[in-house]
Amino acid sequence: AALLVINGPNINMLGVREPSIYGTHDYHYLERLCQKAAREAGFATCEVFQSNHEGDIVDKIQEALGAFDGIVINPAAYTHTSVAILDALKAVALPAVEVHISQVDQREGFRRISFVRLACFETVAGLGLEGYAKAIRDLAAHIGLG
Ligand code: DQA
């Protein structure tokens, strides 16, 4: 099975951006964490994609149809604004898990709203980068890997 991990805007700034919220590990560390978790969960392949551009994320989700078996997505700030990303996830109808590094429910009020959540079977938030590993394991179980 093939896994696609999608990260939205500013996730490439991990380690630099607000380390008290997002930690001190960099984006490369996150990529390796996802690769390892995917391997251990039984995925044959794992692509880790990042973009700061909403339309590029929509394109990537559309291209996932027929190419990937599931999606783990941290849409970052687009979580709270993007009907386009929600609609793309609904269009391809691949099993998807929403991840947030921080505890989005305990921050500013605007971070409590998630459009993308409506197309995901689970949300993982507030576990730091380890949340990606949990999301990947839960996706594997959901599609019957292992
Ligand atoms: C985030 C939470 C979002 O509110 C924020 O805009 C991000 C990262 C998280 O992983 O905690 O960029 O998705």
TrEMBL record:
The record marks R17 as: Transition state stabilizer. The active site is at Y22, H100. It comes from the Bacteria. Substrate binds at N74, H80, D87, I101, S102, R111. Catalyzes a trans-dehydration via an enolate intermediate. Homododecamer. Belongs to the type-II 3-dehydroquinase family. This is 3-dehydroquinate dehydratase. The lineage of its organism: Bacteria, Bacillati, Actinomycetota, Coriobacteriia, Coriobacteriales. The gene is aroQ.
